[in-house]
Amino acid sequence: MKESNLVKGLVKKDIYILGIETSCDDTCASVVKNGTAVLSSIISSQDEFHSKYGGIVPEIASRKHIEMIGIVIKEAVEAAGTGFNRIDAVSVTNRPGLIGSLLVGVGAAKAISYSRRIPLIAVNHLEAHLYSNMIENPAISSNFIGLIVSGGHTSLYYVDSEKNIKEIGHTLDDAAGEAYDKVARYLNLGYPGGPIIDKLSRKRNLSLIDLPRPMIDSGDFNFSFSGLKTSLIYKTKKDRNLLLKENIPSLAASFQRSIVDVLTSKTIRAAKEYGVENVLVSGGVAANSELRREFIKKGRENNLKIYFPPLHLCMDNAAMVACLGFYRFMEGKYNNLNIDVYSKSDI
Ligand code: KG4
Ligand code: ZN
After folding, report:
1. 228/139 Cα distance (integer angstroms)
2. Fold of 5-133+314-330
3. Relative to the CA of 193, which ligand 1 atom is closest?
4. CA angle, residues 155, 327, 77, in degrees to nearest 5
5. Closest-lying ligand to the alpha carbon of 285?
6. Dist. CA 91 → ligand 2 center (Å)
7. In the chain, where are the structural domains located?
């Protein structure tokens, strides 16, 4: 990274960042003003192309990104009303993610940076999820516990007062969203499974099936959700009546209850152990209605402030990438055009 001569505090004009996100299966572009005002956030979902496979097919994802990236960026800039002339920098996810998908977004960002002569800023997708909470709450940019729960990740972070991000726990197998998707596929409910199970669980009866709370008392901050899915499959194979249509909402509710119990309990314990009062939850599963309800309840009981992004910023989007890009821009942290893409995270 090279230092810029744009030192924080000297820049008095409004700053417009174009964010680009293609790490997985959504093609996203957004323009954000001053890190807080989302002027546009365009998301082209590929769900319909992957749903018949019950999960994301990387080759399809990158091909669809190529088809959509130009259209989505143009729409984001037009909807923001800025045109390209007012964009100060382009921020793009270059890690972690599917290599073929990342390459499409990064390629587009490099082309824009080069042709418009504006800085290029490469960001970590997980860090961007944490920043999705700062769009509406810019004051809490440090000293918090961050839980990222998505289809690809379930990780806990401690962000200290210097804004250093330290991973304190992660899933040892399936991510929470992945478990939702796999259980939904097993129950023939459709894809992505999270929102479907969330909705079904509202008509709940938790006594039909007893499922474990994996690693809830493990003493560390790691997670494991693969055994929970296996337990549900095992119990329903043993008692086929559980798979009767009228029982499916109860199965969904019990599965969701286990996930919510584990996520909230370990996150609250992390906040207490690290002595912070703010907890930021983000990622696709942060849209879950029961998770939000339970976090708010436990937060109140433990004198913690719990933050969630608005629903439209929980799942993958480019506004969070532009928001993080804004802070990088203000620190003068730019990247060169020779940046690469990486499948793994560096935090
Ligand atoms: O953050 P995201 O869009 O993509 C990744 O970075 O993975 O998260 C997608 C995941 C999917 O697994 C989806 O099933 C889950 O988020 N999800 C939900 C809900 N909405 C989306 N899980 C539980 N409840 C929801 N309401
Ligand atoms: Zn994500």
Report:
1. 37
2. Nucleotidyltransferase; domain 5 (3.30.420)
3. 14
4. 100
5. 1
6. 16
7. 5-133+314-330, 144-308
The binding-site residues of ligand 1, defined as CB within 6 angstroms of any ligand atom, are 24, 150-152, 177, 180-181, 192-195, 198, 283-285, 287-288, 315-316
336: number of CA atoms within 13 Å, CB side? 5
pLDDT of the chain along its 347 residues, tens only? Answer: 443 444 445 556 999 999 999 999 999 999 999 999 999 999 998 888 888 887 789 999 999 999 999 999 999 999 999 999 999 999 999 999 999 999 999 999 999 999 999 999 999 999 999 999 999 999 998 999 999 999 999 999 999 998 999 999 999 999 999 999 999 999 999 988 999 999 999 977 788 999 999 999 999 999 999 999 999 999 999 999 999 999 999 999 999 999 999 999 999 999 999 999 999 999 999 999 999 999 999 999 999 999 999 999 999 999 999 999 999 999 999 999 999 999 999 88
Q: Are both 5-133+314-330 and 144-308 of the same fold?
A: yes
* Residue that has been written with the tokens 């004198």 in this structure: 303
Ligand 1 atom with the shortest distance to the CA of 282: 1
d(CA 134, CA 47): 27
Q: Which fold has domain 144-308?
A: Nucleotidyltransferase; domain 5 (3.30.420)
For residue 279, list its beta bridge partners.
145, 306
Q: Is the peptide bond before 310 cis (omega within 30 degrees of 0)?
A: no
Residue 322 CA to ligand 2 center (angstroms) comes to: 14
